[in-house]
Specification:
The protein is of the alpha+beta class and 178 residues long. The chain has 4 helices and 6 strands, in the order βαβββαββαα. It has a 3-stranded antiparallel β-sheet with strand order 1-3-2. A 3-stranded antiparallel β-sheet has the order 4-6-5, sandwiched between helices. α3 packs antiparallel against α4. The radius of gyration is 19 Å and the shape is globular.
Length: 178
């Protein structure tokens, strides 16, 4: 049996996404893919898994990268391509009586990941917001479609707030670990 769950988790909240996937696994729902803001799950016996998510830039060494994780006991579950890279989803069974493992074992690795995420998504959000503002201005001055312009400006403002929030949260995380 399969299940799809609509859930919006922003890129600055990877820990929340990992916790969500772990909670679903404990209920017998195992993550299989992500598409259109929906998490897809397959049902099986409940199990205790640690999920970890990494952002892998396209550098041509994906096979070596996946081998490294496989050698460390991490199962590659899914890759979600975006912004000249991929979100890489891994899981590992939690051994009874042992602490939960993580793919990032030092602060420098986490800070490097957060800096990459902050940079990529800030640029992307900024460019999209500027494009929406330009479209809104053009439609405002070139036609009588005033309501469309207001809608476009509203969407641009929401994106600026969303990506601004992401930038601030990532910067705080970086400062706490640096």
């Amino acid at each position: 049996m399969t299940k799809k769950v609509f859930k919006l988790i922003t890129v600055d909240n990877v820990e929340k996404e990992e916790a969500f996937l772990e909670e679903m696994a404990s209920k017998g729902w195992f993550f299989s893919k992500y598409a259109l803001l929906r998490y897809h799950f397959e049902q099986a016996e409940p199990a205790d898994y640690t999920y970890c998510i990494d952002y892998k830039e396209d550098t041509g060494d994906e096979e070596e990268y996946l081998t490294l994780f496989d050698d460390a006991g991490w199962e590659h579950v899914y890759s979600y391509p975006i912004l000249n890279g991929k979100w890489m989803y891994f899981r590992k069974a939690v051994k009874e009586g042992e602490p939960k493992e993580a793919i990032f074992t030092d602060d420098d690795s986490m800070v490097a990941l957060w800096k990459t995420i902050r940079s990529r998504w800030s640029w992307f959000g900024g460019i999209v917001a500027l494009m929406l503002i330009a479209v809104g201005l053009i439609s405002l001055f070139a036609s009588t479609y005033f309501i469309g312009s207001i809608f476009t400006f509203t969407v641009a403002a929401l994106l600026i707030v969303l990506y601004g929030k992401m930038y601030i949260r990532m910067t705080r995380k970086i400062k706490l670990r640096s």
